[in-house]
Fold:
Amino acid sequence: MTRDEPDIQPYEVEVVGVRPLTPSIVRIEVQGAAPEPLGVPDEGCVLHVPLAGGGRDTDGRWYTVRACNGSRHTFDIVTHEGGIGASWARRATVGDRIGISGRQSWFKRPADARWQVLIGDIAGLPAISRIAEEAPAGVATTAVVEVPTAADRLPIERAATTWVHNPDPAAGSRLEELARGIDLPVGSGYVYVAGEAAATRGVRKYLRHELGMAAGTYGVVGYWRVDAERWRRRYESSVEVYEKAWEHAEQAGRDEEESADIYEADLAKAGLL
Ligand SMILES: Cc1cc2nc3c(=O)[nH]c(=O)nc-3n(C[C@H](O)[C@H](O)[C@H](O)COP(=O)(O)OP(=O)(O)OC[C@H]3O[C@@H](n4cnc5c(N)ncnc54)[C@H](O)[C@@H]3O)c2cc1C
Structure:
């Protein structure tokens, strides 16, 4: 997500509902003017939440728009240990005011797809749920989702779902192993992957370099990072290297996937992946 800087001026919204959905997810509903919906089921927004000591998070955190009804937006937020976003979700109350900026989507299922396979962890569950619910009738959905506990399973409508429990995904997400265990259907389809960054990189490599899937038949998005604080410090101290790598990747890659290969190779060479 380092490639998608949020808009500068956030919209102002007010929290109108807070409800724990599972031991690890709080549903937050907000009301107010927000960026225009993109109408793509994995659309995400950057939320600028109140800080514990006063003021607001200016960097912002990405969250999927789980539902959108006029000026009312729903977000399902994972209450993992630490983190500005997760800590706020644990203490959020009706009347809190937050900012919303940047609206972006990554899901690009081909129009002729007859199946979709959705792989993710609990942070990807809101997007996976929406993608399954909003799929056209002719698209069969299979989902494989890693959640901390059985109580975190939130039924996914219209999807044949396999749940896998992993109480501590920061100690090692199983997404790559899970992807390797899936027999992809034949014919035109799409694979979407959303979860921890290193784990999703592993899945992308598998899909592209081992299965030989063509660009445009899958989409892989890193949603969060193990030890994000350390990564942010490293990013800030080497921002030019990241930017140069991205510029090189955009120029040299013939499509998004080739660009991603080049970007990752450059960062790996610089010891920054
Ligand atoms: C497009 C997009 C959509 C997203 N949608 C959602 C969504 O709908 N719901 C949601 O909850 N998240 C979602 N995420 C992920 C969310 O943005 C990250 O989890 C973010 O790091 C949370 O910020 P934070 O302030 O809580 O933690 P940070 O300050 O980023 O990190 C603090 C610590 O918490 C750890 N951490 C961060 N996220 C997780 C996690 N999910 N599980 C375990 N440990 C974690 C980090 O490794 C770090 O050590 C989405 C991300 C993207 C890019």
